[in-house]
Each structure stands twice: as C-alpha cells, then as structure tokens.
Amino acid sequence: MRRAVIMGVGAALPERIVTNADLEKTVDTSHDWIVSRTGIEQRHIAADGQLTSDLAAQAGKQALANAGVSADSIDMVILATTTPDDTMPATATKVQRMIGAVNAAAFDVNAACSGFVYAMTVANSLIVSGQAKRILLIGAETYSRILDWNDRGTCILFGDGAAALVLEAQEQKGSSDDRGVLYCGIRSDGQTELLGTSGGVSSTQKSGFLFMSGKEIYRNAVTRMPEAVVEGLKSINLPLESIDWLVPHQANLRILAGVGQKLAVAPERVISTVQKHANTSAASIPLALYQAAQDGRLQPGQLIACPALGAGLTWGCVILRW
Ligand code: UT7
Predict the structure, then answer these.
(1) Residue 25 C-alpha to ligand 1 middle, in angstroms?
(2) Where are the alpha helices (DSSP H) in the chain?
C-alpha cells in the first residue's frame, strides 16, 4: 500500500529571543511564575516585517535540501497556520513562489494549535489516494501579531516559528511495521468560546487579539490528547508500549507531563521544546520533530505519536514510523 514517508525536515526561528525576564519589565509577571506554571523560559519573536511566509519559506527550503529534492518536484504545498500574512491569497501560495515550487498546488489549513495534525491528515489522504506524490507540509506562525502584550494571562505563552516536512509516496507492505504515516485522526466540538481571537475579517475587519480560558483548555488538553493517542493505536493494533517517542503539541510543560503520565510514557520519551519556543501553535509539533531529528533522538523505524489540541476546539493525533 502507499504510505506517506517523511524524507526531510527543516525549521526556522526568528533571531530575536524574548526571555521571561524581558516580559517582567512590561507586564506584572515573574520568571518563576511562568516557569512553574508552564515550563516556558523564552520565546522567539519575529522581527518587524518578518512574516509567516518568510519563516515558512525558510523552513520549507531547508526541508527540501534535507530531503535532497528540488522545489519543482513538489506537487502540493500545504501550510498549517492561523496567522496568515493576509486574508487572501493563501499564504501557501506566497511560499510556493518564494521557494520556486512551480508545479505545486498550494493552500492553507486553519485548525489553530491542531493545525499540524489536520494538515498531515489532508496530506496523508492526498498521498494514499494517489493524488499527490510529494508534499511539502509546513506549520508556520507569528502569534506575536495577535497577542495583547498587556495581557499577562496570554502574552507569556506564545512564540513565533516554522517547521516543514517533505512527505513522499512510497509503496510499503501495509502493516504497522511500515515506515511513514500509519494513522491520522481528527475531531472538533465547536466550543469556540474557550479559545479564539476577538475579531476577524467578517466580524470586525480586524484580526483581533487572542483570548483563552486557560483552565478549561488545560483540562481538555490533558483528557483529549491521551484519548486521541489511545484511539489511534487501537485502530492500528499497536499497544501503548510500542510508542518510542511522544511528540505532543507544545503548549505547557505540565500538559506534556500529564499526557505522558496518562499514556505511561517515560518522561525522557516525551519530546519537549516548549521551554525554548513557547507555544508556536501549528509549528510546534514539526519544530519538536525537527529538533529531535537533528539531535539524533529520532531513529529510522521508531514509532512516534503526535497528539494536539487547539481552538475550535479541534484535536487529533498522527502516528507515524520515522
Ligand atoms: O495550545 C492550546 C492552547 N493553550 C493551552 O493549552 C494552555 C492551557 N492552559 C494553561 O497552560 C494554563 O491554564 C495557564 C498557564 C494559561 C494558566 O495556568 P493556571 O495554573 O491555570 O493559572 P490561572 O490562570 O488559574 O492563574 C492563577 C493566578 C491568577 O491569580 P489569582 O486569580 O489566583 O489571584 C492569575 O491572575 O495566576 C495569575 N496569573 C499570573 N501571574 C503572574 C495569570 N497569568 C499570570 C502571569 N504572571 N503571567
């Protein structure tokens, strides 16, 4: 059967780092509070004029080079983002032009912090159905542009960044030993009041600022994400013990620990980048995969579970073999 196999990874983080100590100067917060409640120590913030498309293109080019494939061999550019450059066209089409993916179709996927899982579900379906052979899948965000920097409840939590994967169709046996994407599952429930922005194109003609019911989101995250992993493993007949790496959406270190605990995954098997990147929404899982691939933790043949939850509420899980 056809599988979507990861052939290359890339990432891009803005140069500017904002530490918790920096935030202490502008809002009523402290490094200790932020670290004890979230694990976050710093975040990267885009420079003036540095757009989501810039980060996405940089990550995309790196992923293409890492895979050793040319931009004109890509037949889809799928960009998961909630912070597009403009209302239209899709930021993916700008990225397509910036990287020279002249033979591709390009579009954005908006599923907030579940963006990577949703975009991967679409990409996997396109590959398995034979509609696409090689896809550049990118998660890229500039949440710094939709934060109220006077709201200490939210501005400490997010950062900017991008990461990309090259996915390629490969014929495999059709068993759970195959390399590539083995499972994708997505859900949503319409609880839009828990996390969102205070505006948008049709409602206010402004993008608005991010709002969140932190405790409710937290509660949903530590329940839905483990459930999504269990459901995924069950559908491909693999036990919990088969997980080599848990790479969840990176929102809060306490959430990562809670999800790991519920799934009985040892803490050293949970990849966490939230300390250095904060929450980069749709970019967080691919950034974590990139990091773990670069430092040699991810090895071919290992099983990786990537659950996420975000605004919508949306949630889901991708299970893949590296
Ligand atoms: O990617 C998906 C979206 N995001 C998430 O998954 C995040 C989910 N939620 C969370 O991670 C946590 O709920 C937060 C980190 C956002 C908040 O942690 P918490 O333990 O739920 O704190 P809290 O909101 O209950 O706030 C506790 C106290 C409050 O003071 P009072 O009312 O107890 O006097 C807040 O006003 O901490 C105060 N507080 C702060 N203090 C210092 C809130 N933000 C800050 C801050 N610095 N930045």
Answers:
(1) 18
(2) 20-24, 31-38, 52-67, 91-99, 115-128, 152-155, 214-235, 253-262, 274-277, 284-294
Catalytic residues: 113, 249, 279
Identity of the residue numbered 228: A
pLDDT digits (tens, 9 = 90+) for 250-268: 999 999 999 999 999 999 9
List, for residues 206-242, the tens digit of each pLDDT value. Answer: 999 999 999 999 999 999 999 999 999 999 999 999 9
Return the amino acid letter for 160.
D
Residue having the nearest C-alpha atom to atom 9 of ligand 1 = 214
23 to each of 28, 155, 159, how far by Cα in Å? 8, 9, 13
* Beta-carbon count within 10 A of 33 CB: 14
Mean pLDDT of 51-73: 98
Residue 123 to residues 88, 94, 242, 310, Cα–Cα distance (Å): 21, 19, 24, 19
Is there a contact between 123 and 104 (Cβ–Cβ < 8 Å)?
A: no
Which of 141, 156, 218 has most ligand 1 atoms within 8 Å of CB, for mutation?
218
Count of all residues that appear for the chain in the document: 322
Which residues sit with their C-beta closer than 6 Å to ligand 1?
29, 33-34, 37-38, 113, 152-153, 156, 195, 212, 214-215, 217-218, 221, 249, 251-252, 255, 279, 310
- Return the closest-CA partner of residue 45 out of 282, 306, 277: 277
